[in-house]
Write a structure and sequence with these properties.
The structure holds two protein chains of two kinds. Chain A is mainly α. Chain A has one domain. In chain A, 69% of the residues lie in helices and 0% in strands. Chain A is built from five helices and no strands. Chain A has helices at residues 8-16, 22-29, 36-69, 79-99, 109-117. Chain A is elongated. By secondary structure, chain B is mainly alpha-helical. Chain B has one domain (2-190). Chain B has helices spanning 2-10, 24-53, 65-89, 94-99, 114-122, 124-127, 129-141, 148-153, 164-190, and strands spanning 101-105, 155-159. In chain B, helix 2 (24-53) packs parallel to helix 9 and helix 3 (65-89) runs antiparallel to helix 5. Chain B is globular and about 55 Å long. In chain B, 41% of the residues are buried. Residues 1-12 of chain B have low confidence and may be disordered. Classes of the chains: A mainly alpha, B mainly alpha. Chains A and B meet through helix 3 and helix 4 of A and helix 1, helix 7 and helix 8 of B.
């Protein structure tokens, strides 16, 4: 698939689904899921959101344990905003690729979403 | 796990029976009140930067790029100083006084040192990610209800019996900073 074969509305919705989590949920709950391109990006966007949340919580717990035992390592905590920025950059990159009409894969994550998509 | 994490860091230390650890809701409400102070400071700083570097509009100011970054940096520096001095000198910001909580040293329920207050508030930048989600998660899993800043600084936030008059006064002062920031910025604007 590419820009010519996918409508601009679908490309825009698929792209916005990465930063705005409610959009892919709506896609999967409506007839829009019949469209292969929309379903693919909706599932991938939700997977990215869940993965981001899991990493976020895990990082918070890891920092809690580290600072509970070794408070002097507090500068390490400033790495978490950097990782958050990395996740934000990944989201924007995915949105951009989706808007190009591409059905790209995300390393590791796509192996799980492929199972769901069949 | 929460108990274990907290216990590892705070073994043997307990609060006087009259005090309890501040709840997430109390801390959230304190943040809301302190947000009034932040608003006043930001509005004043933003207007002054816009006056100097351009960006004034009919209804206020609008900036992008370096002037916007400068306004944010000035606001962040002023707020950092506000939090550090308030917590080191009196153990509470206006928001905390209004809600009836205070920050104390985890080792003996006395005021924080400036270094502790600085570390605690520098880490606010980390705790505040995604609307304080990091701070909330950490508070929920630690036995003494500490966020990352508290763990690093060795501080705890406790309830504190505060007279109603003092709470109301703190709230009025916070609101006054918000209104004052806006009024002063327009007053100075009118002088140009």
């Amino acid at each position: 698939m590419n820009r010519e074969t996918v409508s601009s509305e679908n490309r825009l919705l698929a792209a916005l689904g990465y930063p705005i989590g409610i959009i892919p949920i709506v896609v999967l709950l409506t007839d829009m899921k019949q469209d292969r391109f929309m379903r693919y990006h909706a599932v991938q966007a939700i997977a990215l959101l869940i993965a981001g949340f899991v990493v976020f919580v895990a990082l918070s717990l890891a920092m809690t344990i580290v600072l509970s035992i070794m408070p002097f390592l507090f500068p390490l905590a400033f790495l978490t905003p950097l990782l958050m920025l990395g996740w934000l950059a990944l989201t924007i990159w995915c949105a951009f690729r989706a808007y190009q009409g591409e059905m790209f894969t995300i390393p590791v994550l796509s192996t799980y979403t492929a199972r769901y998509l069949g | 796990m929460a108990q274990q994490i907290g216990a590892a860091a705070t073994a043997g230390l307990a609060l006087p029976s009259s005090q309890t650890f501040a709840t997430i809701m109390q801390r959230f409400l304190a943040q809301v009140v302190d947000a009034l102070v932040a608003f006043g400071v930001f509005y004043f700083a933003g207007m002054q930067v816009a006056r100097r570097f351009g960006g004034l509009t009919d209804t206020g100011f609008e900036m992008t790029g370096r002037p916007a970054a400068l306004a944010i940096a000035i606001t962040a520096a002023v707020l950092l100083a506000y939090y550090v001095f308030a917590e080191a000198l009196v153990g509470a910001t206006l928001g905390k006084v209004a809600v009836g909580i205070r920050v104390v040293n985890a080792q003996g329920a006395v005021r924080l040192s400036f270094r502790q207050a600085l570390v605690r508030n520098l880490l606010r930048f980390v705790d505040a990610q995604v609307a304080y989600l990091v701070g909330a998660i950490v508070i929920m899993v630690t036995a003494r209800r500490q966020r990352l800043g508290d763990l690093a600084a060795g501080s705890i936030v406790t309830s504190h019996e505060t007279p109603r008059a003092r709470r109301v006064a703190a709230l009025i002062v916070a609101a006054g900073v918000a209104v004052g920031g806006v009024v002063a910025s327009y007053w100075l604007r009118g002088m140009t």
